[in-house]
Write a structure and sequence with these properties.
The protein has 204 residues and is mostly helical. The protein has 10 helices and no strands.
Length: 204
């Protein structure tokens, strides 16, 4: 029972520090945040902080891991359906968490998150393409190349959208991405049926 209480207390401290970092990132650049800022924001002492984290980079890694876990769960959720790349769902997900993601495009604070997020997305896209093109053992372009292209194109568009303070709705951004990237991919792969489904989806 004592160990269980200690574990709960430790988890509570970690949550306080991670939350403090997320709140500070809304108003300050990562490079300007100090350990003392984290202590003041979380309301804990220095010895308590160092009992759980090495430094502020360790805290940022924890923040990134938490967000990636949420994104991974979101991408593999039942609501995604059979879409090769759930762009609309991702645009909406980021808009709902704008106050966290927007600071991540400043400086180098979010580099690890963006790189890891793109890698997760590429794997999911490749799996979806493999399912959609299962009958074609020799696609015109290797599917891992297509997956890398789509994930990179989407990720760069998403980052631009955040840096520009989201001047378009998620629905508009989804339609733009579908027309710029996905329609051409389906045409190249000779999957006209899927392209038609995309056109129906973007008119909803």
């Amino acid at each position: 029972m004592k160990q269980e209480k200690l574990d709960r207390r430790s988890q509570r401290t970690r949550n306080l520090v991670v939350t403090a970092m997320m709140e500070l990132l809304r108003t300050k650049r990562y490079d300007a945040i100090t350990v003392q800022d984290l202590l003041d924001q979380a309301g804990i002492g220095r010895s308590t902080f160092y009992a759980h984290y090495y430094d502020k980079k360790d805290v940022l890694d924890a923040v990134v891991e938490r967000q990636l876990a949420m994104m991974r769960q979101h991408l593999t959720g039942n609501d995604i359906g059979q879409h090769i790349l759930p762009s609309l769902e991702l645009f909406r997900h980021v808009r709902e968490r704008y106050q966290f993601f927007q600071p991540m495009v400043r400086g180098g604070a979010g580099e690890a998150m963006w790189n890891a997020g793109q890698a997760i997305l590429r794997r999911i896209v490749e799996q979806g393409l493999a399912t959609a093109c299962a009958a074609d053992s020799h696609p015109a372009i290797p599917l891992d190349v297509v997956a890398q292209y789509l994930a990179g194109a989407f990720w760069n568009l998403l980052k631009w959208w955040l840096e520009a303070d989201m001047p378009y709705t998620p629905e508009q951004m989804d339609s733009i991405f579908q027309q710029l990237a996905l329609s051409g991919v389906w045409t190249t792969l000779g999957r006209k049926g899927e392209q038609t489904q995309l056109e129906v989806r973007t008119t909803r």
